[in-house]
Amino acid sequence: MKIGFGRTDITPRVGVELCGFGPYITRHSVGVRDRLWARAMAVEAGGERSVIVSCDLPGTGKWITTEVRARVTAATGLPGSALMVHCTHTHSGPNTIDLVGWGEPDAPYRELVPTRIAEACIAALAALREATLSHAEVPCVGIGHNREYDRDGLPIDEVMRPGWRPNKPELTDTTCHVLKVEADGRVIGFVSYFGCHPVVCCQHTRYIHGDFCGVATNAVEQDHPGAVGMFLQGAQGDVNPRFVHKPEAESLKALDVIAAEYAAAVRAGIAVAKPIAVDRVTSCQRSVRFRRKAWTIADLQAKLREHEATLVKATDESTTAVRMATVYVRTLRAMIARMQAGEEMSPPIEVQGFRIGPIALLGSPFETFQAIKNDVVAAADAPITLVLSFANESTGYAADRTVAARGGYAQDMVPLMYGFLPYTHAHDDLVAALGAVERELAEKPVGTAARG
């Protein structure tokens, strides 16, 4: 097999608004704590090539993925269906999600970032060389806790105690997967996979960085001069770091502590990774319609009136209630206009997968909940199945059955922020969609073209 890596700097200029922690908080960046990167890995075996690029960004609008694929195809001939644009979901980067209110989009940056991401992919393909791929799964407990089933807002002195563990570790990732790539007797790249919302900091922190996963990856890269490291974000929709939403000074200290813990796990994985045989690389891309609530124009208008009433009564535009109501007023008005114009209100969702020997990478644009990931892995035939969030777009949460049944923020409110009707069976629909992708990858003959 052949593997190649590429990396480009995608750090925005200081002063852009940062995305995350709430709407309309005008969180303009004041400096660069750690640079942001687009890191790509190209893999070739059995006559097929695939590329995955991981970006230190909150997410990507579909337009970014479309442009990146077009540029890479034009330069290399790689079909877009064999390229996955993935994001780590840092909350300390610019708004590239197209989410109303979550940081004013920076027009110059948005013009340049697809080209920069594409350059990393093109460089990875140009760097393809014979290489050995090794894998390890190593312990990684205590980074996060499940915010839907475990208490949040934990005291600083408790969560920063050495050896801290969540009450319900089984509802988080307790291991991380590490891939090591060697050529000519040295490490040329590595990949780590773990699921945890990267929100160590808070709405008062204004420095650009890739959160604990980006800081950790940067640190491990320094152990291997010339190597490129990647982080793949797993099921993190209901998992927060143990330290979250605390004051700025404490947040920045905790960022380094948690990043160091994760870096130690990655280093352990690199040290013990064992070579795996790769006889094939296959890719699969599907557009799937997820079931959604059958709301009418009248339903949306009723919700609009509810949020407009909040604004009519408001006297202070800085409150969380007013800022959130503003998001809903703007998105609901746009949704009503689209529905009146006869536009599609339940657009298909892209799911995508790669098979690299025994490894299945299964990606969707959701913030996937742990229970969904567990069901996908349990049903998969691949020996190593990694379920990725934030693949090719960002469309909000895929809540598990329990959270969906009780409704609320993840189930009903976030889809409206994105301008979508809420899902009704995201758990079952996503398990079915990713399962179909995994089966197609396993059945696909070696050497067949990627499906568009």
Features of the shown structure:
single chain; 452 residues; alpha/beta; 2 domains; five-stranded mixed β-sheet; 20 strands; 23% strand; disordered C terminus
* Cα gyration radius (Å): 21 Å
Q: How many E-type strands? A: 20
Main β-sheet description: 5 strands, mixed
- Relative helix content: 25-40%
Within the largest sheet, what's the order of strands?
Answer: 5-4-3-1-6
The percentage of residues in β strands lies in: 15-25%
Helical element count? 11
The first-to-last residue Cα distance is 24 Å
Structure description:
This protein is an alpha/beta fold and 452 residues long. It has two domains: 2-281 and 349-399, no CATH class; 297-340. Helix content is 35%, strand content 23%. It has eleven helices and 20 strands. It has helices spanning 62-76, 107-126, 156-159, 211-223, 248-272, 297-313, 320-340, 370-379, 401-406, 409-417, 426-443, and strands at residues 2-9, 31-32, 37-45, 48-55, 83-87, 129-130, 132-139, 144-146, 175-183, 186-194, 207-208, 228-233, 239-241, 274-275, 281-288, 349-356, 359-363, 367-368, 384-388, 397-398. Strands 5-4-3-1-6 form a five-stranded mixed β-sheet. The protein has a five-stranded mixed β-sheet with strand order 12-10-9-7-14, with helices on one face. A hairpin with a 2-residue loop joins strand 3 and strand 4. It is globular, with a radius of gyration of 21 Å. The model is unreliable at 448-452 (pLDDT under 50).
